[in-house]
Amino acid sequence: MTGPLFKGSFPALATPMLENGDVDEKRFQNFVEWQIDQGSHAVCPVGTTGESPTLGHDEHKRITELCLEVAKGKVPVIAGTGSNSTREAIDFTLHAQKAGADAALIVAPYYNKPSQEGLYQHYKAIHDSTDIPIIVYDVPGRSIVHVTVETMQRLSELPRICGVKDATADLALPVRTRLACGDDFTLLSGEDATIVPFLSLGGHGCISVTANVAPRLCADLHEAWWAGDYEKVSKINDLLTPLHEVLFLESSPGPVKYGLSLLGWGANRLRLPLLSVSKQTEVRVRDAMVHAGLLNG
């Protein structure tokens, strides 16, 4: 490679639900189209924000296919294919590969707490069973385990492990990871609130919750960064910072689904065990969206 495989603003797509709890397929595809029209540089279906933990396997695969029907050839599709079962992760990743995804986003195995060697062998087994670029998703707040820089360096030596989604909020990691894995290794933030310092430390983009409701602003921030217009970056960041905060007041995607409902992207429905956010959080989400210019005051 001669640089990172991906860069920019990538919404971690929410999954709209019908009243009976099924996936709203038509609205989801319209939502993907809107994200592309708004300037998102790639899209990421069936991650945590897409409620992947409560999707059945057939639903998971169907959502990837629905996303690809809209986005393929327009922007890259980075499909969530992770599991705490290596066999399941291989199955999801093979499906994404055959469906035509551009890369697979694979979360560190959650709940069963593998060792660093276990993490390495998990990703290596998926890598060796597939032919698709893989992005490691390091999110210790949800998975308990952290993929260390030393393990990430070992993984980066495998030909198709091309980057990391870093949701640690540890701003020492981008530099350490870049030095260990090289300038071609794609560094994506998974923490919207720290995106500007993350970029300043060598990051290439963000797999974003906030981009669900503010795709144009998030894309504009990255494009301003590439253009060296740091005054514009600062102005956009000031608009978005309150939104970054409130979208994590309660378990995601609760707040962002409420925000999407305010924009007309379906009813505010989540699958158990997640619930719609409290009235207090609703007020704060609405206020932050007004501050960002997404709603009228």
Question: What layout of secondary structure does this protein have?
Answer:
Blueprint: E1 8-11, H1 25-37, H2 57-71, E2 78-80, H3 86-99, E3 103-107, H4 116-129, E4 134-138, H5 140-143, H6 149-156, E5 161-166, H7 173-181, E6 186-189, H8 195-200, E7 205-208, H9 215-227, H10 230-246, H11 254-262, H12 279-291
Parallel strand pairs: 1-7, 2-3, 3-4, 4-5, 5-6, 6-7
Helix pairs in contact: 1-2, 2-3, 3-4, 4-6, 6-7, 9-10, 10-12, 11-12
Structural descriptors:
single chain; about 300 residues; alpha/beta; 7-stranded parallel beta sheet; 7 strands
Describe the structure.
- This protein is globular.
- Helices cover 45% and strands 10% of the residues.
- Helix 1 (25-37) crosses helix 2 and helix 9 runs antiparallel to helix 10.
- The protein has a 7-stranded parallel sheet.
- It is of the alpha/beta class and 297 residues long.
- It has helices spanning 25-37, 57-71, 86-99, 116-129, 140-143, 149-156, 173-181, 195-200, 215-227, 230-246, 254-262, 279-291; strands spanning 8-11, 78-80, 103-107, 134-138, 161-166, 186-189, 205-208.
